[in-house]
Amino acid sequence: MEMKLRLFFLRNLSNDVELQLSKEDVQLPVAFSHFREPWVRHHNSKIFESEVFDRNWRKVFQRKVQGLNDTVQGVFDWLSKSNCLFFAWGGSVRDAVTATQSDFSELSVEPLDFAHWNTSFEVHPSKFEYSPNTLSVMFEGRSSSLRALLIDISGFSLRDVCGRIIRIPAKEEFWNEWATEKSIIKVYRYWKLRAAGYFPWTDDEKNFLVDFSQKEFTESSFFTFVCHYVLSGKVLQPVEGDLNCDRPVLPNGKLSRLISVLKSDFGVKYYQRTFKPIIAKVVYGKTEQ
After folding, report:
1. Do 213 and 135 share a domain, yes or no?
2. How far, in Å, are 12, 91, 197, 201, 218 from residue 163 at the CA level?
3. What is the C-alpha to C-alpha distance for residues 211 and 265, in angstroms, rounded to an integer?
4. Does one domain contain both 141 and 199?
5. Quick one: 193 and 158 in the same domain?
6. Are 39 and 158 in the same domain?
7. Is residue 136 part of a domain?
8. What is the chain written as a DSSP string?
9. Domain shared by 78 and 121, yes or no
10. What pLDDT is attached to residue 9?
């Protein structure tokens, strides 16, 4: 089992990834040797390491996790004692590569999400998330001598993160199959990346995602996306009545940037008619201020 973390990293690593390692020289711990290494399974994968990357993760490991009376190191140790293998996966790793601030005094660790090994590493590349969200980190050692290995399963995710590119991992003839493989939230994450300053690999990809989102749109799925995935809130569904959003923090720049890219990609009229009432309901509890 690997752990998917959502963390705030405060150092730009885009130019600090120093060394690409030989995949044959990196192995899983002996206790997990019966598993096939994901970087061997996926032939295009790459592994990198960096002293800056190691140093930043050492600081992260000393931070307390929201909702737990323990640090990331404590969680790591508990999982190790429970014979579980700890990996960071997804957006937290992407942000470690691209964030620019350097003051770790403001670093915080959000509640942890768990993800199954089989649905992360054992899938066909066409079922991966968008390219910026498929980076992973495997850790060796403890906090004082932590070694963090950056694993690029697709082989092009790191390049896309540094270039601020969003790429659908499937070939064009399989885009529809890729988009319907999970809930539409998987597709909506495109606009979360757009709001973070990323751009589509091609206009064809953007046009497909816009058309697919319009065709498969439901109010509840978009409400969930804005509440939980953009504002880190909890969706409350009463026995009767509309959905509500329990938000831990007030809306910030993330929401403003999301609104801007929705208007740009869908057009102002579609935004006003479809998205604005739902966003207002998430933020204010009603469709109009």
Report:
1. no
2. 13, 16, 10, 10, 32
3. 10
4. no
5. no
6. yes
7. yes
8. -EEE--B---S--TTT--EEEPGGG----GGGTTSPPHHHHSTT-EEEE-HHHHHHHHHHHTSBBTTSSSBHHHHHHHHHHTT---EEETHHHHHHHH-----GGG--BPPPEEE-HHHHTSS-GGGS--GGG-EEEEEES-GGG-EEEEEESSSSHHHHHHTTEE--SS-GGGHHHHHHSS-THHHHHHHHHHHTT-EES-HHHHHHHHHHHHHS--HHHHHHIIIIIIT--EEE--SSS--EEE-SS---HHHHHHHHHHHHHH-HHHIIIIIHHHHHHHHHSSS--
9. yes
10. 33
174 in a domain, yes or no? Answer: no
- Structure token digits, residue 226: 């804005």
- Of 111, 132, 163, the position where a domain reaches its end is 163
Which residue has 């065709």 as its token pair?
A: 215
How would you write the pLDDT of the chain (289 residues) with one tens digit per residue? 333 443 333 234 445 555 677 777 788 877 788 888 888 778 888 888 887 777 777 777 887 877 778 888 888 888 888 888 888 887 778 876 765 445 445 555 665 666 677 777 777 777 888 999 888 888 876 656 678 888 898 889 989 998 999 999 888 999 999 999 888 999 999 999 999 999 999 999 999 999 999 999 999 999 999 998 888 888 988 767 788 888 766 667 889 999 999 999 999 999 999 999 999 999 887 655 4
Tell me: do 137 and 229 sit in the same domain. Answer: no
Question: Where in the sequence is the domain holding 49, given as residue range(s)?
Answer: 2-163
In whole angstroms, what separates CA 61 from the centre of its chain?
19
Q: CA 91 → CA 88, 102, 133, 170, 186, distances in Å? A: 9, 19, 5, 19, 13
Q: What is the pTM of this model?
A: 0.80
Does the residue 180 lie in any domain? no
Q: Does residue 121 sit in the same domain as residue 36?
A: yes
